[in-house]
Design a protein that fits this description.
Layout lengths: L7 H20 L11 H41 L2 H25 L9 H11 L6 H11 L4
Helix pairs in contact: 4-5
Protein backbone atom coordinates (compact mmCIF):
# COMPACT_ATOMS: atom_id res chain seq x y z
CA UNK A 1 0.00 0.00 0.00
CA UNK A 2 2.84 2.34 0.64
CA UNK A 3 3.90 1.89 -2.95
CA UNK A 4 0.72 3.51 -4.24
CA UNK A 5 1.22 6.67 -2.20
CA UNK A 6 4.84 7.05 -3.37
CA UNK A 7 3.64 8.52 -6.58
CA UNK A 8 2.94 12.25 -6.01
CA UNK A 9 -0.19 12.34 -8.19
CA UNK A 10 -1.81 9.45 -6.32
CA UNK A 11 -1.01 11.12 -3.02
CA UNK A 12 -2.63 14.36 -4.15
CA UNK A 13 -5.76 12.52 -5.33
CA UNK A 14 -6.06 10.65 -2.03
CA UNK A 15 -5.64 13.84 0.02
CA UNK A 16 -8.17 15.68 -2.17
CA UNK A 17 -10.71 12.83 -1.84
CA UNK A 18 -10.29 12.75 1.92
CA UNK A 19 -10.69 16.53 2.11
CA UNK A 20 -13.82 16.45 -0.02
CA UNK A 21 -15.31 13.71 2.13
CA UNK A 22 -14.65 15.66 5.33
CA UNK A 23 -15.94 18.88 3.78
CA UNK A 24 -19.12 17.16 2.53
CA UNK A 25 -19.95 15.74 5.95
CA UNK A 26 -19.27 18.99 7.83
CA UNK A 27 -20.69 21.53 5.40
CA UNK A 28 -24.02 19.80 4.58
CA UNK A 29 -27.04 21.65 5.91
CA UNK A 30 -29.66 19.43 7.64
CA UNK A 31 -32.87 18.96 5.70
CA UNK A 32 -36.08 20.47 7.10
CA UNK A 33 -39.02 18.14 6.92
CA UNK A 34 -42.50 18.65 8.39
CA UNK A 35 -41.19 19.68 11.79
CA UNK A 36 -38.52 22.11 10.72
CA UNK A 37 -38.67 25.85 10.23
CA UNK A 38 -41.62 25.43 7.84
CA UNK A 39 -43.97 24.41 10.65
CA UNK A 40 -44.71 28.06 11.38
CA UNK A 41 -45.82 28.58 7.78
CA UNK A 42 -47.96 25.43 7.90
CA UNK A 43 -49.62 26.53 11.17
CA UNK A 44 -50.29 30.01 9.77
CA UNK A 45 -51.90 28.45 6.70
CA UNK A 46 -54.02 26.14 8.83
CA UNK A 47 -55.18 29.05 11.01
CA UNK A 48 -56.17 30.96 7.88
CA UNK A 49 -58.13 27.97 6.56
CA UNK A 50 -59.83 27.59 9.96
CA UNK A 51 -60.86 31.24 10.11
CA UNK A 52 -62.13 31.09 6.52
CA UNK A 53 -64.19 27.99 7.29
CA UNK A 54 -65.59 29.58 10.44
CA UNK A 55 -66.60 32.78 8.69
CA UNK A 56 -67.69 31.42 5.29
CA UNK A 57 -69.13 28.02 6.20
CA UNK A 58 -70.01 27.85 9.90
CA UNK A 59 -72.36 30.85 9.97
CA UNK A 60 -74.48 29.71 7.00
CA UNK A 61 -74.57 26.17 8.38
CA UNK A 62 -75.87 27.48 11.72
CA UNK A 63 -78.58 29.43 9.91
CA UNK A 64 -79.54 26.38 7.84
CA UNK A 65 -79.69 24.27 11.00
CA UNK A 66 -81.97 26.84 12.69
CA UNK A 67 -84.28 26.95 9.67
CA UNK A 68 -84.50 23.14 9.59
CA UNK A 69 -85.33 23.06 13.30
CA UNK A 70 -88.05 25.68 12.80
CA UNK A 71 -89.47 23.66 9.90
CA UNK A 72 -89.54 20.48 11.98
CA UNK A 73 -91.25 22.33 14.83
CA UNK A 74 -93.83 23.73 12.38
CA UNK A 75 -94.51 20.25 11.05
CA UNK A 76 -94.90 18.83 14.58
CA UNK A 77 -97.19 21.61 15.81
CA UNK A 78 -99.18 22.64 12.73
CA UNK A 79 -99.05 20.10 9.91
CA UNK A 80 -98.85 16.81 11.83
CA UNK A 81 -99.84 17.43 15.46
CA UNK A 82 -99.57 14.29 17.53
CA UNK A 83 -102.89 14.86 19.34
CA UNK A 84 -104.79 15.14 16.04
CA UNK A 85 -103.07 12.06 14.64
CA UNK A 86 -103.97 10.04 17.75
CA UNK A 87 -107.56 11.32 17.58
CA UNK A 88 -107.83 10.30 13.91
CA UNK A 89 -106.37 6.89 14.75
CA UNK A 90 -108.94 6.33 17.50
CA UNK A 91 -111.76 7.45 15.17
CA UNK A 92 -110.55 5.04 12.46
CA UNK A 93 -110.45 2.21 14.99
CA UNK A 94 -114.01 2.92 16.12
CA UNK A 95 -115.21 3.15 12.47
CA UNK A 96 -113.47 -0.12 11.77
CA UNK A 97 -115.35 -1.91 14.53
CA UNK A 98 -118.64 -0.35 13.35
CA UNK A 99 -118.05 -1.46 9.78
CA UNK A 100 -117.17 -4.94 10.99
CA UNK A 101 -120.52 -5.21 12.72
CA UNK A 102 -122.26 -3.91 9.56
CA UNK A 103 -120.50 -6.55 7.51
CA UNK A 104 -121.63 -9.23 9.93
CA UNK A 105 -125.18 -8.02 9.42
CA UNK A 106 -124.78 -8.55 5.68
CA UNK A 107 -123.64 -12.12 6.11
CA UNK A 108 -126.33 -13.04 8.62
CA UNK A 109 -128.78 -15.67 7.45
CA UNK A 110 -132.21 -14.08 7.20
CA UNK A 111 -133.91 -16.84 5.20
CA UNK A 112 -137.21 -17.77 6.80
CA UNK A 113 -139.12 -19.72 4.14
CA UNK A 114 -140.10 -23.23 5.08
CA UNK A 115 -141.63 -24.67 1.91
CA UNK A 116 -139.65 -25.57 -1.22
CA UNK A 117 -141.11 -22.97 -3.67
CA UNK A 118 -140.90 -20.04 -1.27
CA UNK A 119 -137.33 -21.16 -0.39
CA UNK A 120 -136.44 -21.06 -4.11
CA UNK A 121 -137.91 -17.56 -4.45
CA UNK A 122 -136.13 -16.41 -1.32
CA UNK A 123 -132.78 -17.78 -2.55
CA UNK A 124 -133.14 -15.96 -5.86
CA UNK A 125 -134.04 -12.68 -4.18
CA UNK A 126 -131.22 -12.88 -1.63
CA UNK A 127 -128.57 -14.21 -4.01
CA UNK A 128 -127.41 -10.71 -5.13
CA UNK A 129 -127.02 -12.16 -8.60
CA UNK A 130 -128.41 -9.78 -11.25
CA UNK A 131 -128.84 -12.68 -13.68
CA UNK A 132 -131.58 -14.12 -11.44
CA UNK A 133 -133.86 -11.09 -11.93
CA UNK A 134 -135.49 -12.61 -15.00
CA UNK A 135 -136.46 -15.79 -13.16
CA UNK A 136 -137.88 -14.09 -10.09
CA UNK A 137 -141.28 -13.66 -11.77
CA UNK A 138 -141.74 -17.37 -12.43
CA UNK A 139 -140.41 -18.25 -8.99
CA UNK A 140 -142.93 -15.82 -7.45
CA UNK A 141 -145.78 -17.29 -9.44
CA UNK A 142 -144.88 -20.72 -8.09
CA UNK A 143 -144.32 -19.51 -4.56
CA UNK A 144 -147.88 -18.34 -4.31
CA UNK A 145 -150.30 -21.20 -4.03
CA UNK A 146 -149.65 -23.08 -7.30
CA UNK A 147 -151.23 -26.29 -6.48
Amino acid sequence: MTRIFRHPLALRIAVAAAGLTILATVAVEPAHSQFGIDIAAILAGLKEVDSTLNSAVASPLKMINQIEQQEQQFQREVLYPVAAINSARQMATSFSSSFLSFRQLGSMNIASAQLPYPQQLEQQMLSANPNDIGTIGSAYACATPCA
